[in-house]
Specification:
Structural class: alpha+beta
Distance between the termini: 30 Å
Strand order of the largest sheet: 1-2-4-3
Number of helices: 9
Number of domains: 2
Helix content: 40-55%
Strand content: 15-25%
Largest sheet: 4 strands, mixed
Number of strands: 6
Shape: globular
Order of helices and strands: HEHEEEHHEHHHEHH
Radius of gyration: 20 Å
């Protein structure tokens, strides 16, 4: 599949007149809980001709069969980094990031789904919550290995999480009854307050990085 992905990226570069700087694997395959019918989620960053008069592509989204590709413009990517650094790249900011991810997945896929839901969405919600616990205990960014962070969940929640992961490996379609106790535990994180941190970060460094990459790729 790697060859197929790189072939698709080369085609995107040619068709959209961009240069991809880097790619990462995302989603269930990156976290090693994929099923046989899981998509291949590819994320990356590209540069383009910033001197042209026409509009710039801020994002490229390609869904082709089992490929789900999302690429961001380099300038947009760096602006996101500036926002993160200016807010203070800290434990508090990282915790808030994972709480936000948990809330978004819960409210979009579970909250209003009725008596049943796609149970795999609990996996994404609980992984984010477990990452908050990891940061609080170890004062470091959480590892990609979901098994390590999941061990910090309460035993009952952990058992629920592990069962869904195993069931998910069989199929992406995993409809089942909602777990109100797990939801109560998860929602308890949504209103947690994290101390704000100040940052003296200067965006001059980001400007330098941007100019360096753009000049090298001319």
């Amino acid at each position: 599949m790697k060859k197929g992905i790189l072939k698709k990226i080369k085609q995107i570069e040619k068709d959209r007149k961009v240069k991809v700087l880097f790619l990462i694997e995302s989603g269930s395959r990156a976290w090693r809980w994929e099923s046989e019918d899981s998509d291949y989620d590819v994320r990356g960053v590209y540069v383009q001709d910033y001197l042209k008069v026409g509009d710039l592509d801020k994002q490229i989204i390609i869904v082709d069969g089992e490929l789900d590709i999302v690429l961001w413009d380099f300038r947009k990517f760096l602006k996101k980094l500036i926002n993160i650094f200016k807010k203070g790249f800290s434990e508090q900011a990282l915790k808030q990031h994972y709480v936000s991810m948990a809330r978004q997945n819960f409210e979009k896929y579970i909250k209003n789904s009725g008596d049943k839901a796609n149970l795999k969405k609990y996996v994404y919600v609980l992984r984010s919550v477990a990452c908050v616990l990891w940061i609080g205990k170890y004062h470091s960014p959480p590892p990609k290995d979901y098994k390590k962070v999941a061990k910090l969940l309460p035993k009952e929640v952990q058992r629920f999480f592990n069962k869904i992961v195993e069931d998910k490996r069989k199929s992406e379609s995993l409809e089942g009854s909602r777990n109100k106790e797990v939801e109560k535990y998860v929602c308890g994180f949504f209103n947690k307050k994290f101390d704000k941190t100040e940052s003296n970060f200067s965006d001059k460094l980001i400007d330098k990085i941007f100019k360096t990459y753009v000049m090298e790729l001319k």
